[in-house]
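[job 4471] stage=fold_predict status=RUNNING
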Amino acid sequence: MQNEEFPAIRYDLAVIGGGPAGISAAIAAARAGVSVAIIEKNASLGRKLCITGKGRCNITNACDRDEFFANIPENPRFLYSAFSGFSNEDLISFIEGLGVRTVTERGKRVFPASMNAKDVRDALREELRRLHVKVYYGTAATDIIPESDGSFTVPLSENSMKLLAKKVVIATGGKTYPGTGSTGDGYVFAQKLGHTLTPLKPALVGITTAEKTDSAAPGLTLKNTGISLYQGQKLIYTDFGEVLFTHEGLSGPTVLSASFELAKTGFNNVTLSLDLKPALSREELDKRLIKDFAKYSRRAFSNSLQDLLPKSLIPEFVRRTGIDPSKRTSEITKQERERCVTLLKDMRFTVTGTGPMDEAIITLGGVKGREIDPKTMESKIVPGLYFAGEIIDTTGYTGGFNLTIAFSTGMLAGKSAAAKTT
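[job 4471] inference complete, writing structure tokens
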């Protein structure tokens, strides 16, 4: 016996994707009084949200407007209207209004006070329930079909079901962390409907280097470290903060932001420099080494650096100096000491690339902003179709900026869609 096709179910708005952009679009539309459905391929909402900020959820950044846009290196002007309508301050008020208290940490990064991303997810899910938003779990949209009356048919992968919606928001995320559901479906829909994409590249991801550090170093995190990228002799990026040594190269917040620049410029003739002691000048470091070497004058060189460097970094540092590890510290020459100073201020790595897309925090590229109305998030090509979040070609650095983009564009898309569902 053949399976009968399930009847179509009608909604004012269908939102494809249950991440922060999709959830905020659904909440904004439902608060405006329209019927909303979310299509979510996972068994739960906000899978990627729950792993942001190492599971703590870096909701946003409490910086001012100018600083916010300075941290959006890709297409910031596109976000002016969305941010004006729903800023980082509005996002904090919104989350706290759902019963989640927030705290602000170093770098103005805002987290839930519980330091548990699931508390944010659960509060958003409860608001969807309160607003009677229907969530279709464990199913995916297989197509978006514009109809002659301006509405859309959205077939689902489960049980031959399909939704009929007056408006559609695509909030499927990018191609990073595919295990959370971000497998690039939205890009396929967008292209089929006539949109073009800027090239998709992994951004905010670890950097791979030709030099593999000593086996003791991977896993080491250095705080208050200077980082610079050079293409040939030209300085192309500089930052200050945490750096993490990995088996393949380097990671950590500053390196992730640096990878954004690499995604745009490429890796040809690029080196990365670490300033291990940015608070000290070369002269001050030299005096410090003289003092430490005098203190440990009877020890081997490799056993005289514990006051200056983490234990796990010392073997790598000693190897790079070219100084015999067993050489007595009292016998270190001025030239050898100068090599130590240079290495402390400029530990160089040859950049070979970045980690793969499935290890990146965010996708660089996406649906071209010029094909989307920034005042509404509506497609300029297909009326009634809206975009929100990572699928759009606009990206920020780490620190809560990308989640803010997701919530701001989601709120604008949902509000705009609701206003046109008459």
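[job 4471] summary: The radius of gyration is 25 Å.
[job 4471] exit 0
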